[in-house]
Records
---
Amino acid sequence: MFLEEIARRRTFGIISHPDAGKTTLTEKLLLFGGAIQEAGAVKSNKIKKGATSDFMEIERQRGISVATSVLAFIYKNKKINILDTPGHKDFAEDTFRTLTAVDSVIVVIDVAKGVEEQTEKLVEVCRMRSIPIIVFINKLDREGKDSFDLLDEIETKLGLRVTPLSHPIGMGYDFKGIYNIWNKNAKLFLEDTKTSKGKTVSFDDLDDPELERLITSNSLETLKEELELVSGVYPPFSQDEYLAGKLQPVFFGSALNNFGVQELLDCFIDIAPPPLEKQAEERVIQPNEDSFSGFVFKIHANMDPNHRDRLAFIKIVSGTFERNTPYLHVRNNKKVKFSSPNAFFAERKEIVDISYPGDIVGLHDTGNFKIGDSLTSGEKIHFKGIPSFSPEHFRYINNADPMKAKQLNKGVDQLMDEGVAQLFTMSMNNRKIIGTVGALQFEVIQYRLEHEYGAICSYENLNVYKACWVEPEDEKNHEFVDFKRVKQKFLATDKQGQLVFLADSSFSLQMTQQKYPSVKFHLTSEF
Ligand code: G4P
């Protein structure tokens, strides 16, 4: 029973550059999975430009993103957990963290725009971790790039090795359907499918005269030639290679028009991995172990300032998580139990008695959890792989109301635990620096400090190019001692107390590296 529950779970994330169609695809997967009845039910959690001031929009978005954090449904007896990732690039770090909790991903690419910047960054993180990837090329109802050119672009820009499992029949105005290479059949639109699951017709035999009648003999010839080219040029699909992150199947379709989505979903549940083992500092944890273990990958603060509780999202790695059972919060070395753990379904959450590996539970927390914390049946396990990346923007944060210093410190601390931004403390004078991925977070922090903690902050600009985590060859080495003395002005510690070099330009970073060859500089906190 326990093993069956593990085997039927598929926990994954959908990633894309904003506007490629992530929200639409998510919604259509829910629609085909029977979890929602009509299109339009899933709210986009992206931050729309212009309509309202940015931070009001963020508050609205925060509200929606609790509801869409995890969208779960059952399809063909598989329990599917879709982990939502923020679309806005300023929140890329949230997405990186969510990727530590997925067992596979689907990457959505816009057929006209091809590989975009955000896709490159996200796929790189997936590649580094060998996460199995399926590519979905979307918006085939529009004129876009030639499918072979696009496959080339995906290989070169994303460094993937692709194998198409479907092929479009026409494109844009002439888009007629999809040939499913996985199941070896052709599916054509018969009418406008935007509003319902639509009427389609399938052909198992490409020589069926009815197929030729529907798409014309020219198109059929082209299709056959292209399919020959696909099988000649691309490696055959191998599930082992896909699971090892060495081969990436590609699907074509139009999420908006419900086309190619069912094919994607049906293949996905066949090939995508059930919950995987996870490397901890101490050892590798297998999902089928009896003892429970899990880790926090996301913390969501309550929107209501009167209730300071937060929801910590835990990915279950092994064993079962049971309600009202004491578990060890490893970092605090304290036993805690939860009377109302939340499980997530499409658009609703409810209290759950038992959850299995692959599942996400939401735990109410009054400020004890931090991103990356582990919770176990008793074993002291520390999960790896939730590194911090160098922020892009840096500012000094000052307290603008001396009466509220305590509130400010508490607020900053909690927001950092939530992963909103990173805090550095200058070694020389203890001044605090906030580092963020996008400029928007400074507004978020200021707004939330004021509304949730009653503290007022101001910022001061600071010229930092990158934060580099410093790894000395030997702490006592005279070169390292010399480095610390000479560069004192540029040194800070992060929240874990790790030493960080705040380089003010790429040139000065290079010069420093040359001058102190035994000191290593890393752009992430885990090395
Ligand atoms: P995102 O979450 O990746 O940011 O993208 P989202 O699904 O919100 O889609 C971005 C836009 O692309 C939306 O249009 C959406 O309707 C459209 N879209 C998604 N899939 C397809 C497709 O297969 N074909 C075509 N032609 N368009 C598609 P919008 O005008 O920005 O938003 P809306 O007003 O339609 O909601």
---
Amino acid sequence: MEDTEKIVEEAAAEAQSAQSSRALYEVKMKFLGRTGKLTALLKNMKEIAAELRPAFGKRVNAVRERLEELFAAREEHVKARELAEKLASEQVDVTMPAKRQRRGALHPITKTREELCDIFSGMGFEVFEGPEIESEYYNLTALNIPADHPARDMQDTFYITEKFLLRSQTSAGQIRLMEKKKPPIKMLSPGRVFRADDDATHAPMFHQMEGLVVDRGITLGDLQGMLDEFARTMFAETAKTRLRPSYFPFTEPSVEVDVSCTACGGKGCALCKGTGWIEVLGAGMVNRKVLENCGIDPDEYTGFAFGMGIDRIAMLKYGIRHIRSFTENDVRFLEQFRD
Ligand code: PHE
């Protein structure tokens, strides 16, 4: 009987000093668990005189109940304090100044390429991407630029081996597509191109957007109509285009296409050097020989092709003066293209 009193006192003291629910649980097990002190007392039952056993049993049960109450009360207290501490430690001060997140932006070349793809896919063009490492055949020969032809010098090409090179024009994609697909064709081919060129408006790597349409009865008028539509969507509602005769071995006739100056609208300024026009692309009717090289009958089908510099279009659209700005990775420059 005395032992039970001692156990209650001990348990009360230990519960009081338990500061966490974990510690309190251990104290509880120490007294009420299967190997706990109270359980140990019951094991002594057989040493007690038979007539005293019922009273002893009752006593132990009463003590168990008291201990359970005692632990429950302490547990409530400890848990409440733990919760308060947790809430305090996780408190958010909504009046603190926020950490600024720096947001990225699409590269102006990417933006321009996507915009061009949007405009032309709206007219029914499908995107086709050719490889950056090309064979001489696709980049030059099949485009009617035979070996030793002076036109090979028009574009200073980076050769990798005698037969392979970094493509100097996305026109190579025309051949790849026409070998696989027969008319009607409406292809758009964006990509990087490489030339041994380097000044304020020329970089050794830049981007082109090639277009190719082949079907029955396609004329130069179709080309200009489509380019007018492109210029109005890309630059300004009032933008106009002008064709000037030019020369490309893979088109006949060939034209250079100008748009009315994006800065002055055609009146003449520093950007257009007083002419009111800015050259934006090369184009023309697909040369019969090119169609033949791809197994398309030039008496049945005609087509036009165009190739524009994406970098140049982006420079005009955003008023960028140096082509180098695109590859310098200056965050101050790039940040301006956030939507
Ligand atoms: N490939 C030519 C260039 O890079 C542009 C072009 C494409 C011209 C298609 C005519 C037709 O200059």
